[in-house]
Specification:
Elements lengths: L2 E8 L6 H4 L5 E5 L7 H13 L3 E5 L17 H21 L6 E2 L3 H9 L1 H14 L4 E5 L3 H8 L3 E7 L23 H14 L1 E3 L5 E3 L4 E4 L6 H14 L3 E2 L3
Parallel strand pairs: 1-2, 1-9, 1-10, 2-3, 3-4, 4-5, 5-6, 6-9
Antiparallel strand pairs: 7-8
Length: 246
Amino acid sequence: MRSIDLNCDMGEGLYTDAALMPFISSANIACGYHAGTLETMKHTVELAILHHVAVGAHPGFDDRENFGRTEMILPQKALYSLVSAQIIALYKICVQHEISLHHVKPHGALYNMAARDAETANTIAQAIKDVDENLILYGLSGSHLISEANKLNLKTVSEVFADRTYQNDGSLISRNQSNALIEDEDASVQQVLQMIQQQTVTSVSGKPVNIVAQTVCIHGDGKHAVAFAKKIHQTLKQHHIEIKAF
């Protein structure tokens, strides 16, 4: 049976986490910098345990005002420390709850910068490996996040998006553009099926783009996040596609 991981960004103070958990297999938990607190981290880990969902760290820039979605230029040493500290914070909570931290997925602007910049991606991958070489890096399919992590022999999972649109080179359309988000439920479901079954995505200009779809992201802060997650979950089951963590 074909399988896919469904992941969601969580612990960001949006109060949809409990409703989303039954429909996903991996949770990316904000680690207190772009969003979240020690208490929300603990609570989200407990929700994930309850629903047998894999727990991942979701480190971002220290920029709550912009929800971590504004790019920041940091020295590589500072970037390394930024990422390490957030992973370790969630790692300690996982130890307290007697579970393993499963993966790391950078958030927002940090994710996008690392996807296109090899040095940034390498620094993030090295920080992950130095915390625990068994952690998996979730990164944009075909991006530097994947290639730089592979150079360090770090495990990777190639990520695609249920609710975002794509450019011809496989990168995401910037959130600054009006067509960056998919807000139609059926369009989102069809994109997910195409990505999983055909390993392609159709760009905004109509071009089929080759991708590797190992995990599908549903953004927890999307206006239709719960409805999207429920519909995608149901549709995948109908197509005999198993939903499980990588």
